[in-house]
Structure formats: structure tokens, C-alpha cells
Amino acid sequence: ATDWPRTASWFAATAPNAKFVVVVRSPADDGVDDEDDACYADALQKWRLTFPADRFLVVKAEDFGKPGLLDDVSAFLGLAGAWPAPLSLPPSRVSPER
Q1: E strand or H helix at 21, and its extent?
Q2: CA 73 to chain centre
Q3: Quick one: which H or E segment has residue 57?
Q4: Residue 14: in which H helix or E strand, if any?
């Protein structure tokens, strides 16, 4: 088990305005049962005891490569307008195939 209270406290002391992009993957994609869904929720809930909800952006791994995702992440991180054109990744770079 991780020592999340100490880690979260360290982040809060070191970077009190930190924002977190949380990438989650569907357990069904790995043949894992629904208990892992609860694991994601539990872990995120623990971090939300230290940081407010608006500091987290949850992104589903299967959404990688969708138009606008990188723009959304950039906006969340306060980087909107920092890029000359809408951001996107070529589909071949984000293929879920291994």
C-alpha cells in the first residue's frame, strides 16, 4: 500500500496549486473485474481530501487521440493559447494495440 497521506501532504506543501491529470484505463480492457473501478475511485477520493476536485482532470485512456483532448488538457493546465494550432496526436501514435 502507498503512503498517500504523506505523499499528498508533501505535494500540498511543495506545490499547493498543483493540478493533476489522472489517466484511467477500463479494467474490462484487461479482463479485470469491477473492483478495480472502485480502486480508482477510492484512490482519487483520498487525494481529494487534500486537494479540491477542480484540481483533477480525469481522462480515459481510450480517449487518447480523440480530437480536442490535448486542447482540453492544455486548458485545464492553464496553457490554453500556448500552441499555434489545435493539438492532436496522429492516430498511429495512440493506437491501443500493443
Answers
A1: strand 20-24
A2: 9
A3: strand 56-60
A4: helix 4-14
Residue type for 14, please?
Answer: T
Quote the CA–CA distance of 63 and 52 in Å, as a whole number.
24
Tens-place pLDDT, residues 9-28: 999 999 999 999 999 887 66
Helix, strand, coil percentages for the chain (3-state, nearest 5): 45, 10, 45
Amino acid 31 reads G
Cβ proximity of 22 and 58 under 8 Å: yes
5-29 per-residue burial string, b: 16 or more CB within 10 A, e: under 16: eeebeeeeeeeeeeeeeeebeebee
| pLDDT for 58 beyond 70 | yes
Q: Which amino acid is at 30?
A: D
pTM over 0.85: no
- Note whether 50 and 76 are within 8 A (CB): no
